[in-house]
Amino acid sequence: MDVIDYFEFVRDIPYKIGTVVGEPDYSCSGKHKILYRLFQSVGVKARYRVCEFLWTDIKLPKRVKKVRHENLSTHTYLEVHDRKKGVWVTVDATWDKGLSKVFSVNEWDGKSDTSLAVKPKKIYSPKQSKKLVEGESIEDVRKDLEAHGNFYKAVNEWLERIRTS
């Protein structure tokens, strides 16, 4: 497999936010942790990037918007170093092909930037991003699920309906 195959493999894992501690996480952060490890396994230099976004910028149905949640959230994606050009390329494998009716699903040529799955409000530095992604504890996850678990379930259910309709 090459980097494009790895990208497509991870992209097409159905996006799903984990709603229980220990459950597989196929949200943006979980999917990009998988992609990061795959890239590392073949010697591709990659780094995490995190940005802030607003849930209101995503076209959620009213029934999902009504579920209690904070509007401000974070999004994880990757940057891959292009050795030939000496630049970092944005790679976002968040939305799977099953969501193409609602979201712009990225294709990647292995060289160019993809678009981000969200509209960023603030982008953290590579150092801050790495700390946020790698420093998340089980307690952090537990607190997040207590505050937003019902919202995540509603988002997951909506996305699953899109895939099956």
Major beta sheet, specifics? Answer: 4 strands, antiparallel
| Total number of domains | 1
**What does the overall shape look like?**
globular
Please tell me the overall pLDDT: 96
Helicity level, as a percent range?
Answer: 25-40%
Decide which structural class fits the backbone. alpha+beta
Uncertain stretches of 5 or more adjacent residues: none
How many DSSP helices?
5
Radius of gyration from the alpha-carbon trace, in angstroms = 16 Å
Q: Tell me the distance between the termini.
A: 31 Å
Q: Please report the total strand number as a whole number.
A: 4
Strand order of the largest sheet: 3-2-1-4
Order of helices and strands: HHEHEEEHH
In terms of DSSP E residues, the strand content is 15-25%
Structure keywords:
165 residues, alpha+beta, 4 strands
Description of the structure:
The mean pLDDT is 96. α1 packs antiparallel against α2. The protein has a four-stranded antiparallel β-sheet with strand order 3-2-1-4. It is built from five helices and four strands; from the N terminus they run ααβαβββαα. The protein is α+β, with helices and mostly antiparallel strands and 165 residues long. The radius of gyration is 16 Å and the shape is globular. 26% of the residues are buried. It starts with a helix and ends with a helix.
What's a quick, concise take on this entry?
The protein has 165 residues and is of the alpha+beta class.
Layout of strands and helices, then pairs:
Layout: H1 3-11, H2 28-41, E1 46-54, H3 62-65, E2 72-82, E3 87-91, E4 122-123, H4 126-134, H5 138-164
Antiparallel strand pairs: 1-2, 1-4, 2-3
